[in-house]
Design goal:
By secondary structure, this protein is mostly helical. It has one domain (40-189). It is 73% helix and 0% strand. The chain contains 8 helices and no strands.
């Protein structure tokens, strides 16, 4: 009996030291990642803030116009389904065929609809407007990637202040509205 207790004590201590070694390695990896990729926080925060402001302004504007005109305004996601966004969600959901199986008469490159379809399969059961939500996710993630890449490109050459200004200008110029909408422009910028 005394012999079995003495054998289990070193095993317990070795298990604790093993766990402590694993935790130390994970902390070292975490510090390394923060040191190596900590610079991405500024462009990501700036890009996300810009997209959220544009999203909130679009929702508020649509509701004000809808209330003033007496028309019932659509839900938050359907306001983004305009012009080519309809085609992209149609291609992502049905491929290059319409609901009756006939080929579409519009031609669009397949990278954006394919990306939307992949994201939709990951988020589909959680949303009623899953293709619209997936297309917004793809556009936003691509825009944030473009912000990080632009920041890094400008920062290496001109410094951090100029890089922040470049990301800010990318996000506020008038046509940047399309970088957050369900269009392929954000993916092409990235």
């Amino acid at each position: 009996m005394l012999l079995s207790k003495s054998r289990s004590a070193p095993r317990a201590m070795s298990g604790q030291t093993e766990i402590a070694n694993i935790v130390a390695r994970l902390q070292s990896i975490s510090r390394s990642l923060r040191f190596r990729y900590g610079w991405t926080l500024r462009p990501l925060a700036l890009g996300a803030a810009l997209r959220l402001m544009v999203f909130a302004a679009a929702v508020a504007g649509t509701r004000i116009i809808g209330l003033a005109g007496g028309a019932k305004y659509p839900n938050v996601l359907e306001i983004w389904l305009r012009n080519n966004a309809h085609w992209y969600t149609e291609i992502a959901s049905n491929g290059y065929f319409n609901t009756r199986g006939l080929p579409l008469t519009a031609n669009f490159f397949p990278l954006y609809p394919l990306s939307v379809s992949i994201v939709q399969h990951l988020t589909g059961p959680f949303s009623g407007d899953s293709y619209i939500a997936a297309s917004l996710v793809v556009s936003w993630v691509a825009f944030l990637a473009a912000c990080v890449l632009l920041f890094r490109l400008v920062s290496d050459r001109f410094g951090d202040q100029t890089a922040v200004l470049a990301v800010l200008l990318l996000g506020i110029f008038p046509f940047s509205f399309y970088f957050g909408a369900p269009y392929s422009e954000a993916l092409y910028v990235a």
